[in-house]
Amino acid sequence: MRPRVAVLGATGRMGAEAVAAVEAAADMDLVARLGSKDSLESVVDAGATHVVDLTVPGSTEANVRFAVEHGLHAVVGTTGWDESRRGRLEDLLARHTGVGVLIAPNFALGSVLATAFAATAARYFESAEIIELHHPDKADAPSGTAARTAELMTRSRSEAGREAMPDATESGLDGARGAIVGDVPVHSVRLRGLVAHQEVLFGGPGEQLTIRHDSFDRASFMPGVLLGLRTVASRPGLAYGLDAYLDLGA
C-alpha cells in the first residue's frame, strides 16, 4: 500500500525537511503536517497510515503510543527513548501485532555506517572515546547518536573480553573526562554553525584510528527517513536504529 504520511513536528527544522522530502517522493503522499498545538486526532481524520515523529522528548512517547493504538506505523527521530520507554513501547506493540515502529537516533546513512564501523573496531583497540559536536539549540547531551554508538561499542568490547580502558586520572574538574556511556567516555560540543558531527577515536600501541561523520545539512537525514517509511510496515514490532533496516552483515 502507498504510504499516507503525517509529519509531527512539521514546523521545526527537521520536520520541514521531512515535509519537503515526503512531498517530493513519488511513492508516498503527505496527508498531514502537525505543529505542537495541533490535535493528534487530525492524523486519523486525514487517513494517515504512517507517522513521522520529529517533535521533542517530552511528547514523543505519547505521540507514538497514539499512533500504535490507532494502527499507524511510526518512524521516530526524536531522542529520549531510554530502555524503560522502549520497554513500554514493546509491551504496547505486543498487543498491536501488525504495527511497525522504527526509532532511529540518526537517519544519515553515513552516520549509521560510521556507528557500525565503530562497533566493529571497538573489539580491537585498548582505548576508545567519542566526541560529538552539534549546534547550540540541541536539547540533549550527549546526542542520541553518540549514546547509541557508545552502547554498541560497549557491547562489542564486552563480547571480545576487553578489560576496562586505561585511565590514570586521579583528580579533575567535574565532567572533564566526559560522560561515561556504557564504558565509553563521550564529550559533547555545542557551537553555532555546526549541524551534526561525530568522531570516534581509537588508540592502541603506536597507532590511532579515527572514524568521523559530518552532516552539513539536515537534507542528509532524509534518505534514511524515506527508507524508514518504505520499510516499517513490513517489519512489525520495534526496530531501534536504522541499521536494523540495512544489510550490514551483523
From TrEMBL:
<dbReference type="GO" id="GO:0008839">
    <property type="term" value="F:4-hydroxy-tetrahydrodipicolinate reductase"/>
</dbReference>
<feature type="binding site">
    <location>
        <position position="33"/>
    </location>
    <ligand>
        <name>NADP(+)</name>
    </ligand>
</feature>
<keyword id="KW-0220">Diaminopimelate biosynthesis</keyword>
<dbReference type="InterPro" id="IPR022664">
    <property type="entry name" value="DapB_N_CS"/>
</dbReference>
<keyword id="KW-0520">NAD</keyword>
<dbReference type="GO" id="GO:0051287">
    <property type="term" value="F:NAD binding"/>
</dbReference>
<comment type="function">
    <text>Catalyzes the conversion of 4-hydroxy-tetrahydrodipicolinate (HTPA) to tetrahydrodipicolinate.</text>
</comment>
<feature type="binding site">
    <location>
        <begin position="144"/>
        <end position="145"/>
    </location>
    <ligand>
        <name>(S)-2,3,4,5-tetrahydrodipicolinate</name>
    </ligand>
</feature>
<comment type="similarity">
    <text>Belongs to the DapB family.</text>
</comment>
<feature type="binding site">
    <location>
        <begin position="104"/>
        <end position="107"/>
    </location>
    <ligand>
        <name>NAD(+)</name>
    </ligand>
</feature>
<comment type="subunit">
    <text>Homotetramer.</text>
</comment>
<dbReference type="GO" id="GO:0019877">
    <property type="term" value="P:diaminopimelate biosynthetic process"/>
</dbReference>
<feature type="domain" description="Dihydrodipicolinate reductase C-terminal">
    <location>
        <begin position="111"/>
        <end position="245"/>
    </location>
</feature>
<dbReference type="GO" id="GO:0009089">
    <property type="term" value="P:lysine biosynthetic process via diaminopimelate"/>
</dbReference>
<dbReference type="InterPro" id="IPR022663">
    <property type="entry name" value="DapB_C"/>
</dbReference>
<keyword id="KW-0521">NADP</keyword>
<dbReference type="GO" id="GO:0016726">
    <property type="term" value="F:oxidoreductase activity, acting on CH or CH2 groups, NAD or NADP as acceptor"/>
</dbReference>
<protein>
    <recommendedName>
        <fullName>4-hydroxy-tetrahydrodipicolinate reductase</fullName>
        <ecNumber>1.17.1.8</ecNumber>
    </recommendedName>
</protein>
<dbReference type="GO" id="GO:0005829">
    <property type="term" value="C:cytosol"/>
</dbReference>
<dbReference type="Pfam" id="PF01113">
    <property type="entry name" value="DapB_N"/>
</dbReference>
<feature type="domain" description="Dihydrodipicolinate reductase N-terminal">
    <location>
        <begin position="4"/>
        <end position="107"/>
    </location>
</feature>
<dbReference type="InterPro" id="IPR023940">
    <property type="entry name" value="DHDPR_bac"/>
</dbReference>
<feature type="active site" description="Proton donor">
    <location>
        <position position="138"/>
    </location>
</feature>
<comment type="pathway">
    <text>Amino-acid biosynthesis; L-lysine biosynthesis via DAP pathway; (S)-tetrahydrodipicolinate from L-aspartate: step 4/4.</text>
</comment>
<feature type="binding site">
    <location>
        <position position="135"/>
    </location>
    <ligand>
        <name>(S)-2,3,4,5-tetrahydrodipicolinate</name>
    </ligand>
</feature>
<dbReference type="InterPro" id="IPR000846">
    <property type="entry name" value="DapB_N"/>
</dbReference>
<dbReference type="GO" id="GO:0050661">
    <property type="term" value="F:NADP binding"/>
</dbReference>
<feature type="binding site">
    <location>
        <begin position="9"/>
        <end position="14"/>
    </location>
    <ligand>
        <name>NAD(+)</name>
    </ligand>
</feature>
<feature type="binding site">
    <location>
        <begin position="77"/>
        <end position="79"/>
    </location>
    <ligand>
        <name>NAD(+)</name>
    </ligand>
</feature>
<dbReference type="Pfam" id="PF05173">
    <property type="entry name" value="DapB_C"/>
</dbReference>
<feature type="active site" description="Proton donor/acceptor">
    <location>
        <position position="134"/>
    </location>
</feature>
<keyword id="KW-0457">Lysine biosynthesis</keyword>
<keyword id="KW-0028">Amino-acid biosynthesis</keyword>
<dbReference type="InterPro" id="IPR036291">
    <property type="entry name" value="NAD(P)-bd_dom_sf"/>
</dbReference>
<keyword id="KW-0560">Oxidoreductase</keyword>
<keyword id="KW-0963">Cytoplasm</keyword>
